[in-house]
Amino acid sequence: MSGAAGNPRITAAERRARAKAAPGLAPETLARLARQHPTAQCELVHRSPFELIVSVVLSAQTTDVGVNKATPKLFARYPDARTLAAADPVDLEPYVATLGFFRAKARSIVGLARGLMERHGGEVPQTLPELVKLPGVGRKTANVVLGVLWNKPEGVVVDTHVLRLAQRLGWSKRTDPDKVEIDLCAILPREEWDHTGHVLIFHGRRCCYARKPACESCSVTDVCPAAFDAEHVGRKASVAKPGSAPRRKSARAANAKKKPVRGRTSAKALPRGRA
Ligand code: SF4
């Protein structure tokens, strides 16, 4: 591993320089991450376009692993748009009960199947405008389907991992997924748009974790502006539960602020994450 790996003391000036260079280096950085994750691909198990689009709709707010556990029985009972379109959403609920928002998702995939039957003869259409008109299908779902099935997405899929990684790698400063997608499309070649989502999602799941990113195992520490300091970059602020009391500082933290200890390097002077 090169560059900053093994030398996490990166100065603020170096981080600023990296952030400035990051968009221009994005294709090369992506290629290096792709070499780190040579098997990066869609992790939703599917045997047909119908199974993929249903799986993507079910994957909202839940893990691909959870969806993959639920779908074999679902697709054994409802193997195509015709059988699913004829179902009562209530009858589907036991098949998707392990997934979050399962009642809404049961309704959603039946609506999707009915849309496929009514407008496309049960087949999954191959254009973004047609896909996003289907019930339950948004731009993100449509681009996953277009990319995985036909390698012709109209953009980069921006999920929670891609959003976080785009900010850490210095590819976007924005937090709105639609705007981050615009930034990514501007700095990455079109033929990489589909691959980008898979590589960043793999990296987010296996190395650049939201909490405690494993920078020491990362292949791009020498160019990443957030290397060894990424814990708080690209993560949503924690939201206090309604009615809960505001968090109080621990006595130790409060005292540490009041009484600087002479002769010791202050925590502030050390790189964040190493203090
Ligand atoms: S924050 Fe760390 S793990 Fe994430 S991309 Fe940068 S160097 Fe790699």
Structure in a nutshell:
With 275 residues, this protein is mainly α. It has helices at 12-36, 49-58, 64-77, 81-85, 89-96, 102-120, 128-132, 139-150, 160-168, 177-187, 193-206, 251-258.
Topology readout:
Layout: H1 12-36, H2 49-58, H3 64-77, H4 81-85, H5 89-96, H6 102-120, H7 128-132, H8 139-150, H9 160-168, H10 177-187, H11 193-206, H12 251-258
Helix pairs in contact: 1-11, 2-8, 5-6, 9-11
The structure holds iron/sulfur cluster (SF4).
What would you say this structure looks like, in words?
With 275 residues, the protein is mostly helical. The protein folds into 2 domains: 12-40 and 155-217, Helix-hairpin-Helix base-excision DNA repair enzymes (C-terminal) (Endonuclease Iii, domain 2), CATH 1.10.1670; 49-150, Endonuclease III, domain 1, CATH 1.10.340. It contains 12 helices and no strands. The chain has helices spanning 12-36, 49-58, 64-77, 81-85, 89-96, 102-120, 128-132, 139-150, 160-168, 177-187, 193-206, 251-258. Helix 2 (49-58) runs antiparallel to helix 8 (139-150) and helix 9 crosses helix 11 (193-206). The longest helix is centred in the first third of the chain and has 25 residues, at 12-36. It is elongated. Residues 1-6 and 239-275 have low confidence and may be disordered.
